């Protein structure tokens, strides 16, 4: 129930998933890791390229994604909370220091929640921002006092929902590739 813990575990799971070379793992029948010299951003790009290559799957998965995101908070509450995000001018290590990053994230969320857009580019913009939050928690300026702030708790819950839904995407995509009706699980 402690929201920061939920976020951390969701991101640890995401880290595990994007460190797998899914194309090679499926081809050879066992888990093959991404090359160690690849950056996290490159690994995430490979993960999304694998999960997002079929538009039919994305159209089907979009409903689950939006439903999961709005399980605890309505789209209006989510967007209202995201409007409260501010640039962190204290430090640059892991912090969100560029207002354009916040704007890109908000627009990606609006594209998804309001306009029903769901493609690799929207997901990348969301992950790019949430990754900065992860960096701020692990390497930056976030303190326990910051994490206990009610507004931070709500936003961490929203970020966690994004990551959990993105984690689920790989399993749904694998079921889709196998020919299963993935909408039955939603």
Radius of gyration over C-alpha positions, nearest whole angstrom: 16 Å
Strand and helix order: HHHHHHHHH
Morphology = globular
The structural class is mainly alpha
Roughly how many Å apart are the termini?
Answer: 23 Å
Strand content: under 5%
What level of helicity do the residues show? Answer: 55-70%
Low-confidence stretches: none
Mean pLDDT: 87
**Structure annotation, total helices:** 9
Number of strands: 0
Largest sheet: none
Helix and strand arrangement:
Layout (H helix, E strand, L loop, with lengths): L2 H16 L3 H7 L11 H12 L3 H15 L5 H8 L16 H15 L6 H20 L4 H4 L2 H29 L8
Helix pairs in contact: 1-9, 3-7, 4-9, 6-7, 7-9
Structure description:
- This protein is mainly α.
- Helix content is 68%, strand content 0%.
- It is built from 9 helices and no strands.
- The protein is globular.
- The two termini are 23 Å apart.
- The mean pLDDT is 87.
Keywords:
186 residues, mainly alpha, 9 helices
In short:
The protein has 9 helices and no strands. The protein has helices spanning 3-18, 22-28, 40-51, 55-69, 75-82, 99-113, 120-139, 144-147, 150-178. It starts with a helix and ends in an 8-residue tail after the last helix.
């Amino acid at each position: 129930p402690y929201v920061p813990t939920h976020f951390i575990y969701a991101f640890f799971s995401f880290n595990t998933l994007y460190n797998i070379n899914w194309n090679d793992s499926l081809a050879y029948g066992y888990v093959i890791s991404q090359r160690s010299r690849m950056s996290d951003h490159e690994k995430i790009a490979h993960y999304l390229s694998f999960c997002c290559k079929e538009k039919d799957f994305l159209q089907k998965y979009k409903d689950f994604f939006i439903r999961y995101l709005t399980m605890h908070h309505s789209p209006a509450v989510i967007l209202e909370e995201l409007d409260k995000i501010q640039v962190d001018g204290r430090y640059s290590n892991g912090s969100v220091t560029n207002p354009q990053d916040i704007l890109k994230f908000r627009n990606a969320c609006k594209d998804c929640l309001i306009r029903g857009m769901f493609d690799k580019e929207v997901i990348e913009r969301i992950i790019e921002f949430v990754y900065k939050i992860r960096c701020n928690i692990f390497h930056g300026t976030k303190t326990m006092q910051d994490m206990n702030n009610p507004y931070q708790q709500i936003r961490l819950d929203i970020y966690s929902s994004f990551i959990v839904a993105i984690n689920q995407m790989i399993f749904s995509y694998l079921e889709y590739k196998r020919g299963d009706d993935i909408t039955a699980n939603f």
